[in-house]
Amino acid sequence: MNRFFPKLLALSLLLLLAAAPLSAQVERPTLRGAAEGDSPQKHLLKTIYEEVIYPPTARESRRTGPYLLKIYVTEEGSDWKAVPLTPQVQLKDPLNLTVVTPDNTGGAPVGGQMKVNGDRALLEETERMGRYLVNMGFDNAPGVTSDSLHLVFYYQLEE
């Protein structure tokens, strides 16, 4: 799979783990398949950063922005919804993820349809991540029958 700057993504992962650890009082659904000794947060972040890409169409059209991936976890299974994040959306305890790629477009002009295609590519990548994570499977905290996890993907171009 095409990956852009895996060292930068790994650095982002380490910074996120160090700067924003989940507190013990915040119970979130946990992604299945953690390796022995991995915390649920580390496993989730590692899985995301190993899989997520910055779509070439979005990079070429210099599209950026936040996209919300909401994963619903119930006793029957998991589901997801991905949408562009707007200022009107209020989230409680989101997990913020930064996906960065260099802007190597040289300032080339970007037309209207290119922007639309770039925005669509970012949404489709967020949706792909939703499918991927839900296919891996989630478990809720003991005694919780229904919960949700808010992941905000901030797609950014490196200046």
Q: How would you describe this protein?
A:
The structure is a single chain. The chain is of the alpha+beta class. The protein has one domain. Helix content is 35%, strand content 27%. The chain is built from four helices and six strands; from the N terminus they run αβααβββαββ. The chain has helices spanning 6-19, 40-51, 56-60, 112-136, and strands at residues 30-31, 65-74, 77-84, 95-102, 138-139, 146-158. It has a four-stranded mixed beta sheet. Strands 1-5 form a two-stranded antiparallel sheet. A hairpin with a 2-residue loop joins strand 2 and strand 3 (77-84). Helix 1 (6-19) runs antiparallel to helix 2 (40-51). The longest helix is centred in the C-terminal third of the chain and has 25 residues, at 112-136. Keywords: Signal. Residues 1-24 form the signal peptide.
Largest sheet geometry: 4 strands, mixed
Strand content: 25-35%
Radius of gyration (Å): 16 Å
Distance between the termini: 25 Å
Signal peptide: 1-24
Keywords: Signal
Topology of helices and strands:
Blueprint: H1 6-19, E1 30-31, H2 40-51, H3 56-60, E2 65-74, E3 77-84, E4 95-102, H4 112-136, E5 138-139, E6 146-158
Parallel strand pairs: 4-6
Antiparallel strand pairs: 1-5, 2-3, 2-6
Keywords: Signal
Signal peptide: 1-24
Task: Please summarize what this structure is.
The protein is of the alpha+beta class and 159 residues long. It has four helices and six strands.
Throw out a few tags for this protein.
two-stranded antiparallel sheet; elongated; 35% helix; alpha+beta
